[in-house]
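Reopening this ticket.

The earlier resolution said the output was attached, but the attachment link was broken on my side. Pasting everything inline this time so it's all in one place.
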Amino acid sequence: MPLRLAYIAVANAFAALRLLPIGDGDKDIEILALRHQITVLERQLGPNKAKFAPEDQSFLAALLAPLPRGALRRLRLLVQPDTVLRWHRDLMKRRHARTCRPRRPGRPPTVRSIRALTLRLVKENPSWGYRRIHGELTTLGIKIAPSTVWEILKQEGIDPAPDRHATTWSAFLRSQAHALLACDFLETVTVTGQRQYVLAVIEHASRRIRVLGTTAHPTAAWATQTIKNLVMDLEGAGAAVKFLIRDRDAKFPVLIDEILTDAGIQTVLTGIRVPRMNSIMERWVQSCRHELLDRTLIWNEHHLRHALREYEKFYNSHRAHQAKRQAAPLRPVRAPITDPDRITHLNIRRHDRLGGILHEYLHAA
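Inline output:
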């Protein structure tokens, strides 16, 4: 059709040039002859109508549509003037449809930043459905359809409407990490065969360890006084602790739960023979055994306290933690060192410091 229409336009352009040298009288005679031929053609067609090809319709519409309706009705045509105007309207519709056609068919893609924000909201709030996420996005001023949020979640393999009534233990720990403490007893034996009990607590968010005390006889009075000291230390540090995780050991008296409740701390008991519910504290107990108690001969309770005090400083200020991206609880990640001379100097200082710690242990023994 485009080639046929171009041929018709060029042919009629040359025909218009041919009409320029012809006089008005000759043109009038030719017009009368053409009108009579149209009359003869209509008489021969009878009730039938002349058929125009699409390119003929487009050419006649573009040629005759600019004329006023009155002038268009005075012309002798094989079709009605309204038909010519309808052809022109169809021509404009097709032209508009071609110019407004999108480059990519279908729904436009979602902006990457909106998609990333949606996935972040789902990750930080696993109990939210796609309707709740759509409401939060609308509150932020982001206009997006609920079905688009649903599609984003389905493409990532996330259930758009999760179970809002079930909260897993891991989800509870992640959501309340900054308000969680975990405690446990650690047992060890000195060189003389005396059994010692160590009570320690750890902060879930920062992984900071606090060794509360050591004793050979963990009585109810000793445990109660130790928990009171912990509560006072937390109040002095301004820590907003809401939960304390512990096991069902008989060495924890019932009175400590009342003390913690008065301080606004709720006690959460782990399941029977489920150490993974207190995995962070159990992991510290294992580290303390492997890195300190299994490598050091503990002579008495005084020596144990000194060793635990030094290990607590090392654990909180120096030891790297994978959960904190190799930072320590009381030390952020340092900038990388690229100078070889400085690295050698640091290695020498580290060996000297380890020798000094060993010397202190020997003197304390």
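Reporter confirms the inline version is readable. The chain has 14 helices and five strands. The mean pLDDT is 80.
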